Amino acid sequence: MNRIDKQLLSQHEHEVIYWRNVQKRVVSVVKKLASRCLAFCGDKEVFGSVTKYDSFLADHIARFGYSGIGFTSY
């Protein structure tokens, strides 16, 4: 059965998968830091410094990183 909105549904599924991957990484970092009683900030306060360890995060920060005042992305 073909639906008119087949392409839209496919795009939505890809977006859901993408943002779940972002959420998994954020939760993983929070759990790791909390389990070891570590601070959420370190000696390097450079936005995106963790990207050298994860290519997915590098791509995400390149796409949605700081775009200027008034635009927030998590």
Description:
With 74 residues, the chain is mainly α. It has one domain (6-64). It is 54% helix and 0% strand. The chain is built from 2 helices and no strands. The protein has helices spanning 6-35, 55-64. The longest helix is centred in the first third of the chain and has 30 residues, at 6-35. The termini are far apart. The mean pLDDT is 81.
Q: State the order of secondary-structure elements, H for helix, E for strand.
A: HH
Number of domains: 1
The average pLDDT score comes to 81
Largest beta-sheet details = none
Offer a few descriptive terms.
74 residues; mainly alpha; 2 helices; elongated
Write the layout of secondary structure elements.
Elements (H helix, E strand, L loop, with lengths): L5 H30 L19 H10 L10
